[in-house]
UniProtKB/TrEMBL annotation:
<keyword id="KW-0963">Cytoplasm</keyword>
<feature type="region of interest" description="Disordered">
    <location>
        <begin position="52"/>
        <end position="97"/>
    </location>
</feature>
<dbReference type="GO" id="GO:0010494">
    <property type="term" value="C:cytoplasmic stress granule"/>
</dbReference>
<feature type="compositionally biased region" description="Basic and acidic residues">
    <location>
        <begin position="57"/>
        <end position="68"/>
    </location>
</feature>
<feature type="region of interest" description="Disordered">
    <location>
        <begin position="1"/>
        <end position="27"/>
    </location>
</feature>
<dbReference type="InterPro" id="IPR029428">
    <property type="entry name" value="MCRIP"/>
</dbReference>
<dbReference type="GO" id="GO:0005634">
    <property type="term" value="C:nucleus"/>
</dbReference>
<dbReference type="Pfam" id="PF14799">
    <property type="entry name" value="FAM195"/>
</dbReference>
<feature type="compositionally biased region" description="Polar residues">
    <location>
        <begin position="1"/>
        <end position="26"/>
    </location>
</feature>
<protein>
    <recommendedName>
        <fullName>Mapk-regulated corepressor-interacting protein 1</fullName>
    </recommendedName>
</protein>
<keyword id="KW-0539">Nucleus</keyword>
<feature type="compositionally biased region" description="Basic and acidic residues">
    <location>
        <begin position="84"/>
        <end position="97"/>
    </location>
</feature>
<comment type="similarity">
    <text>Belongs to the MCRIP family.</text>
</comment>
Length: 97
């Protein structure tokens, strides 16, 4: 195994995350926050690598963006749902009840 194929390990301090909601009444364990930070930071690395001009030079390595070869015509008008916005609206609706 070469050093370039060695997985990168990240260590994080277990502190309150700025992404942790403070007004929802939900409590997150330090392990949960660490997992969220890891996924978030790793996803940002993937996005950066995909957008990198060097990405086209390394077709067989690194992240690759999936694009449908034959898109489903039924999904042409699909609009993704913003889950954060949906949760806010549901929370507001429950407070009105």
């Amino acid at each position: 195994m070469t050093s370039s194929s060695t997985p990168r390990m990240h260590t994080y301090k277990r502190t309150s995350s700025p992404r942790s909601p403070t007004n929802t009444g939900e409590l997150f364990t330090p392990a949960h926050e660490e997992n969220v930070r890891f996924i978030h930071d790793t996803w940002l690395c993937v996005l950066r690598d995909i957008k990198s001009p060097q990405n086209s030079e390394r077709n067989d390595r690194g992240p690759q963006e999936y694009v449908e070869k034959n898109p489903n015509p039924n999904l042409h008008s699909f609009i993704p749902v913003d889950l954060t916005d949906l949760k806010k609206r549901n929370t507001q609706d429950s407070k009105k009840s």
